[in-house]
Amino acid sequence: MSWIREEELKLSWIENLAIKVIKQGPIPRHVAFIMDGNRRWASKLNIKRSEGHKVGFEKLSEALQWCLEVGIQEVTVYAFSIENFKRSQEEVDTLMSLAREKFAKLLEEKEKLREKGIKIRVIGNLDMLPKDVQKTLAEAMLLTKDNNRSILNVAFAYTSRDEITNSIKTIMQGYEDNELLPEDLTDTLIDKCLYTSECSDVDLLVRTSGENRFSDFLLWQKLYGQILHSGICSQLFSIIKDVMCIKNP
User: Fold this and answer.
1) Shortest CA distance to 234 belongs to which of 78, 30, 69, 23?
2) Which is an annotated GO molecular function term of this record (predicted)?
3) pTM exceeding 0.85
4) Which class is domain 33-245?
5) Collapsed DSSP state (helix, strand, coil) of residue 125
6) What is the pLDDT of residue 180?
C-alpha cells in the first residue's frame, strides 16, 4: 500500500464537490491525527490485531491524500507512542515490522515525494527504536529534506512527557557547558528544544476513535483550532467527516 495514493483514490462526485466547496474557505495550515482504534476494530471483527494495524495504515494513506487534495500544508500523525512498548512483544514486533515495510515503501516513492514537494520529519525518541528502523527513518528524512511544499510529521516513539523531559535535559546541558545563563530560561527556549521545534502550530486535532483524551500527544504545544473526536473507529472512519469540519477551523 502506497503512502501517496494518487492513482488509487477515486473520488465520487459528492467528494469532488466537497473539495471544491472547502477550497473556497479558510483551510487550516496544520492538521494532526491521533490514529487509534485499530485494536478495538480488530477485536470487534474477531481478526488479528496485526490486520487492524495494516488497515489503519490504509486509512491513514487515504487521509493524507485528502489533506493534499484540499491544500493542507502540514500534517502530523501520532503513529507510535512510547507507551506502546508496554504491549506484548508480539504486537511490538508486528508494529516494528509494519514500520520497516511502510518506510521502505516510502523510500521507493522518492520521485512521487519530490514531485509533490513532501518533506518527511520523524519526531520522537528515535534511540528507543531498533537500529535498522532508525536507519530507514533517517534515510526518509534525508531524502526529502529539500522538499518544501508540504510536510508530513510522523510521531514515532513519542510522548509529550518524554519530549519535555528531553528538552529540559538539553537545556541543563547548556547550563553545564556555560552556554546559557539563568535568565535565558523561557518558554521560547523550551520550544526550541522540543522534537517539534520546526513544526508550525496545530490548527485542527483529529482523534479517530472517539476517545476524549490526548494520550500524551502535543501537550506542551499551543493548539489554536478545533479538536475533533470521531465516534467511529479509524478503519470505518470516513475522511469526508474530517474534511467537512475543515471548513470552520
Assistant:
1) 78
2) ditrans,polycis-polyprenyl diphosphate synthase [(2E,6E)-farnesyl diphosphate specific] activity
3) no
4) alpha beta
5) coil
6) 94
